[in-house]
Write a structure and sequence with these properties.
Length: 442
């Protein structure tokens, strides 16, 4: 029972946690494989944010159980934390909660020692720290660096506070040391991760150590300046929560070239009553004030957002407010979701009364509005030069390289493999719906 295959669903936090799990497993003598058919242990790192996402793991468990080989099946991540022992009914033998990653090898050991099942839904323990081996990172050029785990916001529709628990910030020194180490290893880009990075708030003097020399209106703004001072080539961060998004973050981006010109600021709705029902803690006007601060930045900062359509009770007029907000904000990118009931949340007590057809209509309508805006924005890049981190070959073409700009656009261009892993200048020549094409600037 030595070969482990891990399949990851959900957000970047799960990707980061898979890297952590793989690090611990390898240290305990396990072998990681990306071939499911040769694995003794199949682990699913799961997401529960919408019903469809949560269902996926059950489909996958069924598929693995029908296969001829009979690996041990384990579930980690958000579904593990929420479903707990109920997963044993599905033929799963190992359940690892969202804060039990470091105990994964010990749990597997128990099963190897003869126990039928093992489960751990406990909290992180003293001394368990985030340290991920470079060998397990999803990319040799871009690294995910969690700065805060959990969420205290309890937006009425959202399962995350239940699956990830309360907010816990990582000590600043640990984060800075990790970024410095990544830089020494040749990483070109880090993504500072959290459900709400603006809530970053180390509790004790020693957890704050390392930030003293850096000014900032909030601990997160100070952390950004401290991370910028490491000299890491490119720094991105997600997700920003609108109410806690301080204009000083924009000031920090203005000051430091390596703080990237991209902010992801999910708005969810453009209507004040719906926002109140969602318990987001801000109004449309509050949100627009943040957007204006972002648009006043020295460099143009690309802005992306998330929207939920068909929240319980959302009327057509209220939905139109979302459409008008999307028009007003001119987002560079927009993730639109149809509302999905999450059991146990406050909104689950409300009737899910917008019909599936109506949700679909609103989804398509908004998509259409966004498509036009995005087309305009993307065309605006033609003729401009972008700094692109080359991440690899384009999946769609043999001659193309692909990467992301500092403003987080996908950029494709022709070039040789020697450029992979480097930051290059690309002049944009063509705008596609979700990507840009260009040519290398010598
Ligand atoms: N912490 C981030 C987002 C986490 S979930 C934030 O606060 O913005 C990512 C996105 O999934 C959310 O922004 C929201 O748009 C969507 N989402 C969350 N719960 C949902 C639900 N019950 N139904 C539909 N979409 C949902
Ligand atoms: Fe969910 Fe709201 Fe927390 Fe984001 S801020 S994870 S939407 S509860
Ligand atoms: Fe999904 Fe959990 Fe992330 S619910 S979006 S994997 S925090």
């Amino acid at each position: 029972m030595k070969r482990v295959y891990i399949e990851t669903f959900g957000c970047q936090m799960n990707v980061a946690d898979t890297e952590r799990a793989a690090t611990r497993l390898r240290a305990a003598g396990y072998e990681l494989t990306d071939r499911e058919e040769e694995a003794d242990v199949v682990l699913f790192n799961t997401c529960s944010v919408r019903e469809k996402a949560a269902q996926k793991v059950f489909t996958r468990i069924g598929e693995v159980r029908r296969a001829r080989r009979r690996p041990l099946i384990g579930v980690m991540g958000c579904v593990a934390q929420l479903e707990g022992e109920a997963l044993f009914e599905e033929g799963v033998r190992l359940v690892v909660g969202t804060r039990a990653t470091d105990r994964l090898p010990a749990l597997l050991e128990r099963i190897r020692g003869g126990e039928r099942r093992a489960i751990d839904l406990g909290e992180r323990r003293e001394g368990e720290v985030w340290d991920v081996s470079p060998a397990e990172r999803h990319s040799p050029y871009v690294a995910f660096v969690p700065i805060i785990e959990g969420c205290n916001k309890f937006c009425s529709y959202c399962i995350v506070p239940f699956s990830r628990g309360r907010e816990k910030s990582r000590p600043a020194r640990e984060i800075l040391a990790e970024v410095e180490q990544l830089r020494a290893l040749g990483y070109q880009e880090v993504h500072l991760l959290g459900q709400n990075v603006n809530s970053y708030r180390p509790r004790t003097e020693s957890e704050r150590a390392g930030l003293e020399a850096f000014p900032g209106a909030t601990p997160f703004a100070r952390l950004l300046r401290a991370v910028a001072a490491t000299g890491m080539e490119r720094i991105k961060f997600t997700t920003s929560f609108p109410r806690d998004f301080h204009p000083d973050i924009v000031a920090a981006i203005d000051e430091h070239e390596n703080l990237c010109d991209w902010v992801h600021l999910p708005v969810q709705s453009g209507n004040d009553r719906v926002l109140r029902m969602m318990r987001r803690g801000y109004t449309r006007a509050d949100y627009m004030a943040r957007v204006e601060a972002i648009k006043r930045a020295r460099r143009r900062i690309a802005l992306t957002s998330d929207i939920i359509v068909g929240f319980p009770g959302e009327t057509r007029e209220e939905f139109e407010d979302t459409v008008s907000l999307v028009r007003e904000c001119e987002f560079d990118g927009l993730y639109i979701f149809k509302y999905s009931v999450r059991p146990g949340t406050r909104a689950a007590a409300l009737a899910d009364d917008v019909s599936p057809e109506e949700k679909r209509e609103r989804f398509l309508r908004l998509e259409e509005v966004q498509r036009e805006i995005q087309r305009r924005i993307y065309r605006g890049y033609i003729g401009r030069e972008l700094k692109v981190l080359v991440e690899g070959r384009s999946a769609k073409s043999l001659v193309d390289l692909t990467g992301h700009s500092t403003c987080n656009k996908v950029v494709n261009f022709a070039g040789g493999p020697e450029l992979i892993g480097r930051v290059v200048r690309v002049r944009i020549t063509e705008a596609k719906e979700h990507s840009l094409r260009g040519e290398l600037v010598a």
